[in-house]
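Technical annex B. To support the medicinal chemistry partners, we prepared a structural model of the target in complex with nicotinamide-adenine-dinucleotide, based solely on the information shown next.
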Amino acid sequence: MRQRLCILGSTGSIGTNTLDVAARHPDRFEVVALSAHSRVDDLLAQCRQWRPRWAAMSDVDAAQRLAVAVRAEGLPTEVLAGPQALVALAGHDDVDSVMAAVVGAAGLPACMAAARAGKRLLLANKEALVVGGAQFIAAVREGGAQLLPIDSEHSAIFQCLPEDRSTWAQRIDHIVLTASGGPFRQADPLSLRDVTPEQACAHPNWVMGRKISVDSATMMNKALEVIEARWLFDLAPSQVKVVIHPQSIIHSMVICRDQSVLAQLGTPDMRVPIAYGLSFPERIASGASALDFLGLKSLTFEAPERARFPGLFLAWEALEGPHGSTAVLNAANEEAVAAFLSRRLRFTDIHDVVARTLELEVPRLSLSLDVPVEALLALDEQARRRAREIIARLN
Ligand code: NAD
Ligand code: MG
């Protein structure tokens, strides 16, 4: 039987790459559900092409406009509205696999629903795991879900490890996540004050959504990935290390107990980790071009400097902090990046907003380790309010 796919965030960079891979294998995949936030035209075009059973829009007004258009064109798709629609689809009996490609903590409730319903859960939405942490992993375990990493670094680590998870702890000394260093790796730190959203989103190696592009420029993306790796592979924070590798050819590495190093390499193309998540434990064509070894000039490595990328180092601090610290980190960063993208905050102030929010909110944390995920979402909201106050004061 074909795998019935629900793609949450189908109009984004990961969503469209997922559809690109699925289109190469119509014998394997059936797209039954799509979702987007507010871009009606993009989702309508996908409904025409894929004729899914459901299309959901988290923005209710947008959903109404989509419903009118879908009816006018006589498409077979039922349109659902509001954030709850994503939760309903993620846990639906007629869905086998959920691609979680929403950006931000907004994707957490749907991820929890997929986890609890025991789905095959393809996780691109790293913020959901950064906020949900132990609760997210417990839901995966209790629901019997299969959690497959889509982030290229985590897919690389996953590809280097055997299928039997019970052997991982014994084998791994530590892991090294590679980072490109983003567009400002060599820029004069003093020149970063006046960086525009366009400059920050011009990534040297990857084409991605705007939020993750800004995160790559500050290296907060790698901080989120350190936290993501801690949970995906059940590692101590000190077992997760980061090295800058500007060519983005080595996608990450496992350093084994015997000092053997396992790495996964390839051209930088998200369709590779997406195809692996879709087909695991098999391998299918992804559409990516072959790695041309003879065309490679050199593979180089640098240590990330604290002065240039202070946000990166908050990952380990938040992981060692009280329960909920990583949710505060993520919320403050989402607010700061949104303010930067709408030109209400300087690029260099993103870090100050995150660091200040952590300073004010972390000492107030007193969550027990087994709080329901709703408490983490309430904390997310509180940290956002604090971050917005700080942003307003900076203006
Ligand atoms: P994007 O901005 O291109 O797309 C985001 C998608 O989510 C869109 O379909 C949008 O409609 C939807 N969306 C936005 N806000 C929403 C909300 N509040 N509720 C419901 N849906 C909403 O982002 P992207 O680059 O595709 O990234 C998606 C996720 O994948 C992020 O968590 C990102 O960190 C992760 N990721 C992306 C890449 C990449 O190459 N793009 C690589 C690794 C990880
Ligand atoms: Mg990544």
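Notes passed to the chemistry partners:
Residues 3-149 form a domain with the Rossmann fold fold (CATH 3.40.50.720).
DSSP finds 16 helices and eleven strands in the chain.
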